[in-house]
Amino acid sequence: MRTQVGIVGAGPAGLLLSHLLALRGIESVVAEVRSRGHCEARQRAGVLEDSSVRLLREAGLADRLDRLGLEHGGIYLQFAGQRRHLDFRDLTGGRTVTVYAQTEVVKDLIAKRLAAGGAVDFEVTGTVVDRLDTDRPVLSYTRADGSTAQIVCDVIAGCDGFHGICRPAMPDGVATIREREYPYAWLGILADVPPSTDELIYAYHSRGFALHSMRSPTLSRLYLQVDPDTSIENWPDERIWDELQQRFALPGWDLRQGPVLDKNITPMRSFVSTPMRYGRLFLAGDAAHIVPPTGAKGLNLALADVAVLAPALDGLLRGDSRLADEYSATCLERVWRATHFSWWMTTMLHRSPGADDMETELQLSQLRYVTTSRAAATSLAENYTGY
Ligand code: RFL
Ligand code: PHB
């Protein structure tokens, strides 16, 4: 079998790349280890930057996003018994973010690819990428029906997330890894209850960080900082709500509770693997970099990578390698900005185990500063809404 671009992974990066290539008349095959249902239901990100919304709109993918997305002009930072609003529109000259779940982005992308006759193989096993240093790399896997695919490609795109096989397929010594693990994790719930807030609340509390996000006018998404070694069995719904109530408590304000529809724990990590290319293998999204979710950047970075990759591959396939040669450096500039911002938000808002009064006072001072200084607030707003 033959295709132009073999794509590993049907997450936001792989699916959007396949669509953007199709718009340029370039053929691709997407191989995905999970089922379609699993990809469409996996609870993850919820916030799109302006530039991501524009990208999806320009690619003809925003019908549902424009109807169902919730445009937010700011966030709340809560600490020391006060809740302060940061007005992004005012601070950045009109920029906003849009609350629209990654599950919906993925549903939109899968529907679009399948309607256009795009090749997306779900539930594959044994994915292997090979001959990456030639101009005919090979993508192989076994299909759900047991048949084998051996696809000769011009290029392979590794969009297979942090635990994928593409990054490790680079020969030893090619990649340099920079990594930081944080001594906490997020427990996230999806709750069948209208949000208790109009915009997201990021709360600093002596018991640990909490975040109130949402999925729709009737669905709330909430997160709690927890010990990375804890297990979900230790967290019955009552304990989660009790902890959320304490961390968000504010006189005159109520946190509405409802049935918990989904519950999971996510470790927190910063990770950047450079370069994002080896020969004819290009990495995009979480396959190359991970940020802790506090800055709401991961999904946006994945989309931004493939927006750079699609024209670069178009050029490469036509014999002009300039954009492809710049791909890694172009993406990494944005990746490092987002990596710094996510690390900064994370360390400002979380309680480290064993934190002393010095650390607490430094965090509180930083929080007071970003909520009172226009310069500091603008810096947060500029980074949060994207650049
Ligand atoms: P994905 O979504 O992980 O997709 C990779 C796909 O590759 C498949 N795969 C394979 N397929 C074939 N063969 C193999 N050997 C394979 N190995 C893996 C996987 O099954 C999967 O379908 O990566 P992608 O496309 O790079 O997208 C990245 C985003 O998913 C991620 O960065 C965000 O979800 C991060 N994130 C957030 N990002 C934001 O921009 N804003 C947010 O508000 C935000 N909140 C979050 C988040 C991530 C979270 N979790 C659970 C990690 C909140 C949470 C809780
Ligand atoms: C989410 O809605 O899932 C979400 C929102 C903001 C974040 C992280 C996750 O910073």
Short summary of the structure?
By secondary structure, the chain is of the alpha+beta class.
The largest sheet, given as strand count, sense and whether it forms a barrel, is:
8 strands, mixed
Structural class: alpha+beta
Number of helices: 11
Overall number of strands: 20
The percentage helix is 25-40%
Name the beta content range: 25-35%
Uncertain residue ranges: none
Molecular shape: globular
Bound molecules: 8-demethyl-8-dimethylamino-flavin-adenine-dinucleotide, P-hydroxybenzoic acid
Overview of the molecule:
The longest helix has 28 residues, at about 320-350. Strands 6-5-14-15-16-13-17-20 form an 8-stranded mixed beta sheet. The chain has a 6-stranded mixed beta sheet with strand order 8-2-1-12-19-18, with helices on one face. Strand 15 and strand 16 form a beta hairpin. It has 11 helices and 20 strands. The chain is an alpha+beta fold. 8-demethyl-8-dimethylamino-flavin-adenine-dinucleotide binds near residues 11 and 159.
